[in-house]
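Lab notes, practical 5.
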Amino acid sequence: MKQLRREALNALLIVLGILSAAMGLKGFLLSSNFIDGGVTGVSMLLAKLTAAPLSVWLPLVNAPFVVVGYRQMGRAFAVRSALAIGGLAGALATIHVPDVTPDLLLTAVFGGLFIGGGIGLAVRGGAVLDGTEIAALLISKRSHLLKVGDVILIFNVVLFLIAMSVLGVEPALYSILTYVTAARTLDFVIYGVEEYTAITIVSSQSVAIRERITGELERGVTVYRGYGGLTGAEQQILYCVVTRLEIGKVKAIVHALDEHAFIVSHVLADAEGGVVKRAALH
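Output from the prediction step:
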């Protein structure tokens, strides 16, 4: 029963993702001659260069990536992704969406917002609407020099350079804005306001700082023993993982106890387990 509810929620998220992406494409981008990044952008370019519509090119271009997804991530993921991409193609072919605005800046921003939101919802439902990430994952596994983000960046740089020669410089620049908006929206939908940040704190008041973080924020703190590279004095180094909404609170606690504390923070791609609690959709 629990598995059935989860699959029903996955299906709902994928359907909402399809509708959102279709809105971004038909309601904004297509009429303004803009494209998105990734495999979707390739499909849109092919649709502009040939007689076949986007609803045909989307499943054709994504098909090899779905096959790779089947081999790398399993049958359930591949089936959901195939249905999601097919559903998006069907929505583009059958659902009438009027052009929302002729304003180019609004088109780029809100088109990217709807597309990024749609892709993010599909990912939360265990599928993809764009196969770029699958290809990037495969290449990064076979290369020690390239990470997933590097592959996606290189792919899109080449795509938008080609778009400049096909669409013109101005539409290509607006398309880059669309892609950036979509990427940021995608991150927000997947990680939400609970995107995690790791904070490292070096302070002479480490005990008091640790007690306040664990007591007031109810976050776990890992204590490392280290020593100063210059003085050689032994000291405690605190490491904790918080949401970005809690970063300010942690810094306020540290500064209240030690104005000269050394603080380093960096965003984490993901975090789970321990006392980390994420408010997931399912």
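Observations recorded by the TA: The beta strands are 196-202, 221-227, 234-243, 262-267. Confidence is low (pLDDT under 50) at residues 278-282.
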